[in-house]
């Protein structure tokens, strides 16, 4: 299992150092949660801040856009050094145009599904995606409880990926830690986002190692 620590749980007064700390602790990807206070009821940061912290790690930056009009900001995040951009299927932007824009910048593209959005919603786009992110909490905040009832959705998407012989990763995000990682792995998730479980751990390196073992 690949592990992407969510910087949402970091000390934002030293975000660069926190990224370097996660890099050293063995993180596979850095997960950056971008919220606009409109698509979700919380605000975090945008591309200018990401640009400042980009030099603190060479690991892939996995940018999770929780914003109403992602298409408008793809160039900014590409310029700031994103390696992977995921955006919500429930957002207002034209989905095909947004995928095209991400790919035109040489970046991996993913669609994110909120808990209430069914697996089938992503099927028309699967052939053009590099990953699908299944939310296992309502987006907006860290530290929420894992929704185990999202695992059938993961299994359905995985089955469709395999049926079509595609090379699309499944990522899960929200409430993942020692108590839930086994279920996540069993359902077929390839990349787990973990905020609280890594940042609040006494030893983040061991926490990442434990989760990655699945
Ligand atoms: O996208 C997110 C919230 O919208 C975060 O990535 C997610 O909540 C991670 O935090 P935790 O592991 O603490 O649940
Ligand atoms: Fe996220």
From TrEMBL:
Biological process (GO), any one: pentose-phosphate shunt
HAMAP family according to UniProt: RPE
Name of the protein this chain belongs to: Ribulose-phosphate 3-epimerase
Alphabetical list of Pfam families matching this protein: Ribul_P_3_epim
SUPFAM superfamilies in the cross-refs: Ribulose-phoshate binding barrel
UniProt gene name: rpe
A GO molecular function held by the record: metal ion binding
Known cofactor(s): a divalent metal cation; Co(2+); Mn(2+); Zn(2+)
Catalyzed reaction equations: D-ribulose 5-phosphate = D-xylulose 5-phosphate
Lineage of the species this protein comes from: Bacteria, Bacillati, Bacillota, Clostridia, Eubacteriales
EC assignment: 5.1.3.1
């Amino acid at each position: 299992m690949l592990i992407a620590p969510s910087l949402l749980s970091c000390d934002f007064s030293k975000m660069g150092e926190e990224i370097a700390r996660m890099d050293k602790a063995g993180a596979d990807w850095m997960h950056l949660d971008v919220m606009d206070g409109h698509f979700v009821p919380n605000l975090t940061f945008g591309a200018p801040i990401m640009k400042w912290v980009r030099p603190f790690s060479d690991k892939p930056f996995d940018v999770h856009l929780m914003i109403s009009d992602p298409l408008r900001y793809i160039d900014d995040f590409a310029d700031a050094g994103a390696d992977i951009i995921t955006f919500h299927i429930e957002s207002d932007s034209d989905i095909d145009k947004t995928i095209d824009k991400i790919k035109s910048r040489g970046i991996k593209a993913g669609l994110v599904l909120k808990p209430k959005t069914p697996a089938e919603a992503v099927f028309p786009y699967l052939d053009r995606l590099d990953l699908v992110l299944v939310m296992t909490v309502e987006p907006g905040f860290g530290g929420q409880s894992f929704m185990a009832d999202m695992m059938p959705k993961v299994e359905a998407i995985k089955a469709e990926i395999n049926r079509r012989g595609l090379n699309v990763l499944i990522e899960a995000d929200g409430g993942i830690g020692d108590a839930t990682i086994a279920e996540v792995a069993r359902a077929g998730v390839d990349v787990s986002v973990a905020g609280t479980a890594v940042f609040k751990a006494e030893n983040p390196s061991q926490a990442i190692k434990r989760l990655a073992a699945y």
